[in-house]
């Protein structure tokens, strides 16, 4: 049995094409007049295209008593040969293999957009050691190794630039059409391509942990064979085999015409029922891939078509997860807002704290000014920083820092800062020469396309919900900005899990969209989990059914509509194929169709539903 399975797997698509070409020529030669060969050339088509079908049927019956379409096709082939219709048997086998080839080509086209990642995996890396530069296989790079990447080379592993300036083409990972400038401190991903300058980098994620390898694992797990709808088609095929055999036997007993019975077996072959469904699923997966969505489970799109609620995490999903200075307030006479902002950024310039870095980054971007030099910088863990800027003694940090240094409270400053904190902002207080001068408010940045996405979700027929660990005021503010009417604040991971379980117990199926480790349980619990593949954690991506490679949440409405379009296509294919089969049976009973014409009619229908499924590859909803 193992040898039979190896035979069936031999050669893949190339083998199918070669067999079809030879079989087609043999069938043409069989039809040609004037040739009288000892053996009908149609036997070549039977052997090349029919034998694999029969072997597949035998393997299924012997190993698992699995009655599928191949069983009925095999019976039809045997019956055709038994009554001397070798050409009909060869034609049935030929067209069945042609339908299978069309499916293989559709699947190959659907996967092409993501499987190219496998070929883009860097093979070597330039590792800098004390002995000099050494070229090693990429899989031998260790975390912490110092690497050099030259212009035109692919980044071998994930890492951080330590020296050099360059531009990176990261379309393979993010879909961005233009190169992105990179400098010291910037992260680079494996598989992206260095465009211009050379740079040195420190490896942070290697081997199976690298970005390119994670995407490859997602590709490898995208298997339409897991789809539940395919199992349904197989169950239907089992009943069709039974009905076909009964109909053929009854017709033979009543009409005493063996040709009609064989024709019924030929036209009743449920190849369209079996072939069209996985083709539609894989075509939809290919469509999703074109829009930066990697579908990890074949039945994820089938499940997504049933959801009625889309639950969003806030940080890193509806927001960028990057702190930004949202307000600067100065209460010190003679010190303007911009002056206080500049002093605070100068004091924070050497800070390693994420909020301090955010202050420096935002000040430079907003004011486009050169920061003055600071002196006497001191990092105060858990409190803030201290420094002297332009002769002024500055403190930047929390209220505990102010109290430790005896800075008098200023009621107006504290009252205004409290209002910002109620909105969900983080406040950095600024003291100048021992007086509380004002504060900087930092908040997460809403994604510019968040409101558009929420509106698209609602138009697609689902209700958006916000689940966040932030306090109620921050949740209400974000929900109002993006147009979400229902939200839950202060959610721990178990709270999100409980909410999803309650909604689904009530019959309201949930799609969860999140990015962090704390979202992993909810992503698993929801009927469908969608993870942010770019900024999201590895745990969240592993827990999800679908990953947004470039974090473009605008594609979520398309994904939802695509899943529903896919299910409509599958239902249409199933109804059409069954209707065609029963119509052909009636014609066969009436002696209108013989085995040859019956095979042509039936398999033309199979090709039609496969082509209909393949249209999903480029489908896009139009208003």
Give a short summary of the structure.
By secondary structure, the chain is an alpha+beta fold.
Q: Main sheet: which strands, in order across?
A: 10-22-21-20-11-18-19
User: How much of the residues is beta strand, in percent?
Assistant: 15-25%
Q: N- to C-terminal separation?
A: 54 Å
Average per-residue pLDDT, rounded, comes to: 82
Query: What oligomeric state do these chains adopt?
Result: single chain
Tell me the total number of β-strands: 22
Question: Sheet with the most strands?
Answer: 7 strands, mixed
Helix-strand category: alpha+beta
**How many DSSP helices?**
23
Structure commentary:
Mean pLDDT is 82; it is low at 1-11 and 222-226. Strand 21, helix 21 and strand 22 form a beta-alpha-beta unit. The two termini are 54 Å apart. Helix content is 52%, strand content 19%. The protein is an alpha+beta fold and 623 residues long. The chain is built from 23 helices and 22 strands. The chain is elongated, with a radius of gyration of 33 Å.
Write the layout of secondary structure elements.
Layout: H1 2-9, H2 12-31, H3 42-64, H4 69-82, H5 86-119, E1 124-129, E2 132-137, E3 146-149, E4 158-163, E5 166-169, H6 171-174, E6 180-182, E7 187-188, E8 193-194, E9 199-205, H7 211-221, H8 228-255, H9 258-267, H10 271-290, E10 293-295, H11 300-304, E11 309-312, H12 314-318, E12 319-330, H13 337-348, H14 354-367, E13 374-380, E14 384-389, E15 392-397, H15 399-404, H16 411-422, E16 426-432, E17 435-446, H17 450-459, E18 463-467, H18 472-482, E19 486-488, H19 493-505, E20 510-514, H20 520-525, E21 528-532, H21 538-543, E22 546-548, H22 556-589, H23 595-614
Parallel strand pairs: 11-18, 11-20, 18-19, 20-21, 21-22
Antiparallel strand pairs: 1-2, 1-3, 3-9, 4-7, 4-9, 5-6, 5-8, 10-22, 12-17, 13-14, 14-15, 15-16, 16-17
């Amino acid at each position: 049995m193992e040898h039979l399975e190896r035979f069936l797997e031999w050669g893949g698509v190339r083998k199918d094409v070669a067999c079809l070409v030879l079989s087609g020529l043999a069938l043409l030669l069989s039809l040609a007049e004037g040739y009288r060969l000892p053996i009908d050339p149609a036997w070549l088509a039977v052997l090349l295209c029919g034998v694999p079908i029969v072997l597949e049927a035998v393997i299924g019956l012997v190993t698992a008593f699995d009655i599928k379409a191949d069983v009925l096709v095999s019976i039809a082939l045997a019956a055709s040969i038994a009554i001397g219709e070798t050409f009909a048997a060869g034609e049935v086998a030929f067209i069945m293999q042609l339908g299978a080839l069309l499916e293989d080509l559709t699947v190959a086209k659907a996967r092409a957009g993501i499987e190219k990642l496998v070929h883009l995996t860097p093979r070597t890396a330039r590792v800098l050691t004390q002995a000099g530069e050494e070229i090693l296989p990429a899989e031998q790079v260790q975390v912490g190794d110092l690497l050099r990447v030259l212009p035109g080379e692919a980044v071998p592993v994930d890492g951080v630039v330590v020296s050099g300036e360059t531009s990176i083409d990261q379309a393979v990972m993010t879909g961005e059409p233009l190169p992105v400038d990179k400098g010291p401190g910037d992260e680079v991903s494996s598989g992206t391509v260095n465009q211009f300058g050379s740079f040195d980098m420190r490896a942070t994620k290697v081997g199976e942990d690298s970005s390119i390898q994670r995407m490859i694992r997602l590709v490898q797990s995208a298997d339409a064979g897991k789809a539940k709808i395919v199992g349904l088609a197989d169950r239907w095929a089992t009943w069709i085999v039974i009905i076909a055999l009964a109909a053929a036997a009854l017709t033979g007993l009543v009409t005493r015409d063996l040709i009609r019975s064989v024709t019924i077996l030929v036209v009743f072959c449920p190849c369209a029922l079996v072939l069209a469904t996985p083709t539609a699923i894989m075509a939809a997966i290919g469509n999703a891939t074109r829009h930066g969505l990697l579908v990890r489970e074949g039945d994820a799109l089938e499940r997504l078509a049933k959801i009625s609620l889309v639950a969003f995490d806030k940080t890193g999903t509806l927001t960028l997860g990057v702190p930004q200075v949202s307000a600067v307030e100065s209460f010190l006479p003679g010190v303007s807002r911009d002056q206080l902002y500049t002093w605070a950024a100068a004091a924070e310039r050497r800070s390693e704290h994420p909020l301090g870095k955010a202050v420096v980054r935002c000040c430079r971007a907003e004011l486009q000014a050169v920061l003055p030099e600071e002196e006497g910088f001191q990092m105060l863990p858990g409190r803030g920083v201290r420094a002297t800027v332009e002769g002024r003694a500055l403190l930047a940090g929390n209220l505990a820092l102010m109290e430790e240094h005896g800075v008098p409270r200023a009621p107006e400053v504290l009252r205004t800062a409290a209002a910002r904190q109620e909105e969900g902002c983080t406040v950095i207080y600024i003291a100048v020469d021992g007086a509380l001068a004002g504060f900087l408010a930092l908040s997460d940045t809403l994604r510019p396309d968040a409101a558009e996405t929420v509106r698209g979700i609602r138009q697609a027929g689902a209700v958006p919900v916000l689940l966040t660990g932030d306090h109620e005021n921050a949740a209400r503010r974000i929900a109002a900005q993006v147009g979400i009417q229902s939200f839950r604040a202060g959610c721990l991971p178990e709270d999100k899990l409980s909410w999803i379980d309650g909604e689904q117990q009530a019959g309201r199926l949930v799609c969860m969209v999140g990015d962090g480790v704390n979202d992993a349980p909810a992503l698993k619990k929801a009927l469908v989990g969608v993870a942010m593949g770019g900024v999201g954690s590895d745990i969240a991506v592993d827990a999800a059914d679908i990953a947004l490679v470039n974090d473009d949440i605008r594609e979520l409405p398309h994904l939802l509509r695509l899943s529903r379009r896919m299910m409509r296509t599958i239902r249409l294919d199933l109804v059409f194929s069954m209707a065609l089969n029963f119509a052909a049976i009636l014609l066969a009973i009436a002696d209108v169709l013989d085995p040859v014409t019956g095979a042509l009619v039936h398999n033309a229908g199979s090709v039609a539903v496969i082509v209909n499924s393949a249209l999903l590859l480029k489908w896009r909803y139009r208003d």
